[in-house]
Amino acid sequence: MSEDAGRYAWSPAQLRQAIWLGYGGRSATALPTRAFAGEVGVSQRTVQRWLAGTSRPNPAHAARLRGLLTPPADVLARQAKDRSHLQAQLIAIRSPRGRAISAQVRAMGWHEPHRLIHLTHTGYGLNRLMVVILHSVKPAPIPPGWAVTAAITYENRPLALIAKHQILEQVAPWRIAVRADLLAKGRHEAWLDTAPPIDITTLPH
Fold it and tell me: Hey, is 27 helix, strand or coil?
């Protein structure tokens, strides 16, 4: 959990949604509160009171909730490491010797324009991002249930991915780890749609 995330407390509705999307249940109104309470280390009645809004988790329980429902620390660390690598790739691509960039970068087309796409899923109440190459014979498929709400073009893949990481940092308090059966790819990069809106078209590009 990031320091910024710790400053924000989920509302009862957000907690209910996070439990359903990240832990399990037939729906956001049919949650496995007893099993989840065992994971948190509290009684089922305590979780029910949190969801009803009649009590709030104390700091220790709030930290435990985020530990269970948000992206794991190793995932966040790997993403931070990836971002530092992107900066190095960007410098190599933009250098006067850019034509000497690695064969892998050129073969993958990372030096070509890419689009950062903002997606929403109204059924899940989630947002996520995709980065796709702009010039492609076959357009990247949009996952079922997701709708494009905005898109912005960057001159290369590292720039688009750096912008993606910047957005994920902005929405850190609202990120959750979605169950694999609901979102197989990018499940650690989604965030609740109750987060403040992000307009990706205003980002530098």
Answer: strand
Q: Do residues 164 and 130 lie in contact, with contact meaning Cβ atoms separated by under 8 Å? A: no
The whole-angstrom distance between residue 74's C-alpha and the CA centroid of its chain comes to 14
pLDDT tens across 138-190, in order? 667 888 899 999 999 999 888 999 999 999 999 999 999 999 999 988 999 99
Written as six digits, the tokens of 85 are 């690598």
Please identify which residue in the block is written with the tokens 């609740």. 192
Name which of 143, 181, 196, 194 is nearest 21 in CA terms: 181
pLDDT given at position 106 = 64
pLDDT tens digits, 51-65: 999 999 999 999 999
What separation in angstroms does the CA of 86 have from each of 123, 128, 131, 137?
33, 20, 14, 25
Count of alpha carbons within 13 Å of 109, Cβ hemisphere only?
A: 12
How many other CB atoms are found less than 10 A from the CB of residue 163?
20
Instruction: Look at the block and give the residue holding tokens 């992107």.
Output: 86
